[in-house]
Amino acid sequence: MDVVIVDDHDDTREVAAEVLRLQGFAVRDFARAEDALDAMESEPPRAAIIDLTLGAMSGEDLARKLRSTGTADHVALVAMTGHTSARENEERLWDCVLIKPVDPFDLARTLRDIVAQK
Known about the structure:
Elements: E1 2-6, H1 10-22, E2 26-30, H2 33-42, E3 47-50, H3 59-69, E4 76-81, E5 96-99, H4 104-117
Parallel strand pairs: 1-2, 1-3, 3-4, 4-5
């Protein structure tokens, strides 16, 4: 399964990507939302794990853009953040909200479950 990870914290992104690869996922990872947006519009993944606090474009901005263009119609969007307020998910941007720290093996299980429901 193709997964995109967007997180500007290198260690978090790299550890999550490596564990998911070991679990059989094909992972593309990005530090910037803008780079992820370009890649996802040309080749949508099955799931995207997106941190909320990024650079110029936030994770929420990225999710809004993906939802508005229809790119996310068949992509499970997962917020992975330290901001507990994201659980409210008022705009319904996210298929799932995970609060850091997230066990990478739980992340793999969650991705499989969410994609199966999408």
